[in-house]
Amino acid sequence: MTTVDVSTDERLARNSLVTRLVVRPEIGALLGAIVVFLFFSIVTDKFLTMGGIATWLDDSATLGIMAVAVALLMIGGEFDLSAGVMTGSTALVTAMLATKAGVNIWLAILISLVFALGVGALNGLLVVRTGLPSFIVTLGTFLALQGLNLGITRLVTNSVQVSGMRRAGGYESSGFVFASWFNIGDTAFRISIIWWIAFAALAAWVLLRTKFGNWIFAVGGAAPSARAVGVPVARTKILLFMTTAAAGWLVGTINILRYTTAQANEGIGLEFQYIIAAVIGGCLLTGGFGSAVGAAIGALIFGMARQGIVFANWNSDWFMLFLGIMLLGAVLVNNTFRRRAERVRR
Hints:
By secondary structure, this protein is mostly helical. The protein has helices spanning 17-22, 27-43, 50-75, 83-99, 105-130, 134-157, 171-179, 192-209, 211-228, 233-259, 270-280, 292-311, 318-345; strands at 161-163, 181-184, 187-190, 261-263.
């Protein structure tokens, strides 16, 4: 009787813990977050206080919501340069309806969500129907929204801002949901932190545990091959653009109810921070590889570094140097981890 050496059967082989960790896109961001956390914990006393933690988590929260949505879109192989201005546009829609048209804030919030989803769907349709790069399409949307924000705000208010949200109907209840506080001990934390964690957890579950998550990786990795095996490429991309727009609506709603004033230029330029946070979190610019959790960690690195520099009483200009180094380092690390992951999976 012939015996088989099962120890050499590759089907029964188990990868080591290190190997399993290396194939995770977010591992580089996690290591970076640990380094940043330890560094500022040492150089400043305030960083690890409850008040300090509340500050840098708050700084990370709204950025993290958008970074996670942008990460999903980047994994799907596309970009959205209108993501930043969308936060301002939705805030302005809500504010104008509530303060100038007398609409209850809850209804205004719902209308601004429909507006955001419409813009996201339009972006997606233009990309999949025309074949134009999403960079160009969403750059056009960015400019159009920027012009609309400024033009309509000036036309309606004769200024560049909309205020008076506290007097609008529904402010107390909507403010409780989107802009309230919760206490841990004697320290108050913003509810936006809960929204950030919940959104990141939902995105991670969708990405890793659902059919739609598989579609996202497929269309970002090789859209023609994905289409050949029955993946609805166009529908997936459109839904991803709508997800990014919906995240912009959520951040815009949080901001308008928190600050009660919306500026016509709000959100402009933040789209690059969202993309950078996603890249730091493990996303590749070429698509097909990345992590929702990693993007959330990338935003956490932003918050810790930005507030850590403030706590250390350094010139805030150093933050841009840190950001550039982190971006270049993340690209190199992500490419290395991707190549290692591809070798492991073969």
